[in-house]
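User: Please predict the structure of the protein below. I'd like the answer in structure-token form so I can feed it into my own downstream comparison script.

Assistant: Understood. Taking the following sequence of 578 residues as input:
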Amino acid sequence: MARPRSRSRILVPAALVAAACAASADAAYPVRPVPFTDVTLTAGMLRERQQVNRKVTVPFALDQCQSSKRMDNFDLAAETMKRRAAGEKTFHHKPATGAPYDDSDVFKALEGASYCLTLEADAGLRKRVDEFIARIAAAQEPDGYLYTFRTMHPDAPVDKRMDAERWLKDPGQSHELYNLGHLFEAGVAHAQATGSDALLAVCLKAAELLHKEFADGEPRIPPGHQGIEMALVKLHEKTGDPRWLDLAKLFLDARGGGSPYNQNHEPVVAQREAVGHAVRANYMYGGMADVAALKGEPRYLEAITAIWNDVVGRKMHLTGGCGAHGGGETYGGAYELPHKCYNETCAAIAFMYWNQRMFLMTGDGKYMDVFERTLYNNFLSGVSLSGDRFFYPNPLEWDGKEKFNHGHAGRAPWFGCACCPPNVVRTMAALGGAAYAVQDERLYVNLYASNDATVTVGEAAVKLSLRTGYPWTESVVIDVQPEQPADFTLCLRIPGWVLGRPVPGDLYTYADATPAPWTVSVNGVQVKAVLESGFARIARTWRPGDRVQIALPMPVRRVVANDKVEAARGQVALERGP
């Protein structure tokens, strides 16, 4: 492997940063999500969970980043640079925490905090976020490199997961690129929330370094823990700079000839099965969807469609969880789905991201069906109702005694490897962004949660007010308020479980697969909606005051697994609604 080239000082002009904050590239997905900033959850389960996230989980995660000494690493890195610059050439610090990926937990917490600031002003939270950002910026090296474990101890690797040279162990376990991916997502979120370039400038400086060192394909570095691919796409969309999208593709195309553990065994376009570490895999598949959409890469879509079919048809638990094995946190083989499974919360989050992207590529409701199943059964389980206790794994079976949760018999306040709690923070805060989507003259309703939203369908500005007790009750009411009469098609997702199919394919089926008698009414008159790709489609001229009523009956159903799932033979699960 070639060594990285020389690292000259990189300066990011202030004008470039200002332009980056203002720019926004048009999305290239055929279906466009309605931003979470245009959707306000107003009542019900998801609203309650989002409020607990804002009031409890966000400040708790920031507290933990401080008390666990993750923030200390940034301070120690900054002090090391300062004292060496002052002449103490051998000065160094030992890290305050145990793993080089600990930086990423801070970035995820900041991303979630920024989303909360986008939805609701909070002077105290803003001040705290700004203080964290100042400490992070101080830890960045002059050329843009940001990785505290190396900066605070630059003369020799302080951790076996690192190499004496930058990047060279990233295909293994150094997590240098993984950390930067979460930095980039936090920087974009913070800029959107506040209009400040404080963190985005740090991101752009680091991105310039990546471009300098990797843009020509040397050294060939397949990221050891994926995630930076989706982050670079977000940076591209924020700035309009095509270099970041090109880098995302470069990192994906660097794969092949390595280990299946991190999906480096084959080129990404040749992969057809989900293998290895589930979080890494699902992040990569989401990144492939982004690049497929924005760069027109049909071979990427072909690959991730086959992989999705493999997961949903052979490797997904009924809860929507994936990554059955705790040893290595990996996908198992086909139909290898034990009840004492792993099903990491981060894997569920990454799976949700991937499923939403598959929907945006295709407009097929089956992807949002799986998104919803994972949301209610494997994501929400990852955090307590109080908002300050967490599951890392989410098994189907537990005896009440085994310390399955990284040494805890039950939920824990934090972990040594704490990737899941701040991942919950950022995902919960932006959940409204999965509720609606638009495509030309179509408006998709994907999630049924009480909300008020403002959307643009074609040329029409439309306000929506959705009221429901879902997932507990079957009734959904949507008031449609276009500014003036407008022609468009309202696409209402009719979940597979209503239609007699718990999941796409035959991995799980209902003992009685009779479809439930769902109905759709407009202004009190039942309509015969066309059902296509999982959506009931109503094309009409919509007028202010129109009301849509949906009934999604929720009988209790017996679920049986495919007989190839040895752990579930002779057993049933009971299921109601999502």
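That's the full token string. Confidence is low (pLDDT under 50) at residues 1-26.
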